[in-house]
Amino acid sequence: MSAIGQCIAAFIFGSMVGLLVQRSRFCNTAALRDAMLFNTYRNTKALLVAMMILTLGFTGFLTFGDGKPLRFDVGLNQVMGLFLFGIGMVLAGACTVSTWVKAGEGNFGAIWALLFTFIGMFLFSLFWSFSYWPPAPASMTGEPNLAGLQFGYTNAATLQEKFGIPAILFGLVQFAVLFGIYRAIRRKECRSEQTSVTTS
Asked: HEC string of 14-45?
């Protein structure tokens, strides 16, 4: 496919995904926040279904196709960054995806959230060090490195390489766990509906 064809395909795909996200009001933050604070699971169920599909697709490509997983170490820098990012999402009232949607709809708070996301990314690129943590690339070897505060990485691909177990098996285990959580939520919702009908 030519470069123009790739741009057109990306535009069509992006437009379709954007329309679906905008119409469904899907939000990763709401998927967790609403479940914990308000006992509502609409976004939570959507997130679980998406994770189940992605898990099978990702591990399936690793086993039968040409899947090329990203390899990156998990370290204290990721833990701190994800914690701060999570706080920011809750304060902003939206995840990055829904922030883009809200900004497109004219939400001024979402526009500010995106602006400072870009500023943070720019500052990170300025202060990234290739000599010192966090994180020095020399310490990111894929193996645990306590001196560099890196925990290494392990995913379905590395387990497949080390032990010869097809990645799809790990995907099926994860799928089963996610499906179990989904079923537990549905049972809880059914019990709540029955209770409300009985009391009314």
From this structure: HHHHHHHHHHHCCCHHHHHHHHHHCCCCHHHH
Interior/surface letters 56-70, b for 16+ CB within 10 angstroms, e for the rest: eebbbbbbeeeeebe
Q: Tens place of pLDDT for every residue, the chain, 200 residues?
A: 788 888 899 999 888 888 888 887 777 777 888 888 888 888 889 889 989 998 888 888 878 876 566 666 777 777 887 888 888 777 777 777 888 888 888 888 888 888 888 888 788 777 765 555 555 566 667 777 777 677 777 666 677 777 777 888 888 999 999 999 999 999 988 888 787 777 76
Residue 145 in 3-state DSSP?
strand
Can you give the length of the chain in residues?
A: 200
Residue 149's CB is within 10 A of a number of other CB atoms, namely 18
